[in-house]
Amino acid sequence: MTADSAAPSGPGPDGPRHVAIIMDGNGRWAKAKGLPRALGHREGVQALKRTIQAAPDFGIRCLTVFGFSTENWSRPAEEVSDLMGLVRTYVASDLARLEKAGVRLRILGRREGLPADIAAIIDKAEAQTAHNDKFMLQVAFNYGGRADLIDAARRHAERILAGETTEPLNEENFAAGLATAGSPPLDLIIRTSGEQRLSNFLLWEAAYAELVFQDILWPDYGPKALGEAVAAFAQRERRYGGREPAPARVSA
Ligand code: FPP
């Protein structure tokens, strides 16, 4: 078995509370095995399940993953359809279990443009888990960082025009209009497959996050690789623009 399923070593005191992952490399994983890309994505869902299950053992309280970007619509129709199908299957098979485990599921991204049944599935999943507070799972789907910044600015302007506020735009009220509003500050962004860029993911939230790039392809990801990323994070000194090193995670 190539998939990473080793037991985690346990949480550290300076562990990241909010981790985001760019799950990259499904296509290359499938290609290397002579398999269709769809199977790479399907194995990607298994890796996601392993990672969600392991995350609390490292002290992680919130996990945000990039499932489908606004740019992914440019992929061949068959692949887009495969990815939509995975959401249907994943929610159908895992929602009850996630709800029981105390997971609050949130989908980040524009609802417009999504197939109507997917939008309905997402709304139902969010409503059904809204009361949970043990763990937050945010799936960015039809999400783009720039689009989210535009939406947040627009929301504030609309509130002013509607007479709901007279407050000038500031970091606090701007962040309250982002898709991630209400989630903990982002501590760590992981990207798999060796690529080293943000690809329009969490542009605002990334401001003081640590970045860890891992060579592993996403379908092979799991507790061992997550533990390595968390260990790399714990070695970092976060200064937030100041001179004094801070522990990797400061209490919010
Ligand atoms: C990147 O691999 C991965 C994606 C574009 C999709 C990620 C999605 C999943 C892991 C499944 C998501 C499941 C849910 C429930 C949202 P790539 O295709 O870009 O790989 P490549 O760079 O090797 O071609």
From TrEMBL:
Keyword Metal-binding recorded: yes
Cofactor(s) required for function per UniProt: Mg(2+)
Keyword Magnesium: yes
Signal sequence, renumbered to the chain: none
Keywords, in A-Z order: Magnesium, Metal-binding, Transferase
Residues the entry annotates as binding Mg(2+): D24, E210
This enzyme's EC code(s): 2.5.1.-
Cofactor note: Binds 2 magnesium ions per subunit.
Catalytic residues (positions): D24, N72 (proton acceptor)
Pfam family, one: Prenyltransf
GO MF annotation terms: transferase activity
Binding locations of substrate: 25-29, 37, 41, 69-71, 73, 75, 191, 197-199
Function: Catalyzes the condensation of isopentenyl diphosphate (IPP) with allylic pyrophosphates generating different type of terpenoids.
HAMAP family, A to Z: ISPT
Family statement drawn from the similarity comment of this UniProt entry: Belongs to the UPP synthase family.
Annotated NCBIfam families: uppS (TIGR00055)
Subunit architecture: Homodimer.
Protein name as annotated: Isoprenyl transferase
Species lineage: Bacteria, Pseudomonadati, Pseudomonadota, Alphaproteobacteria, Caulobacterales
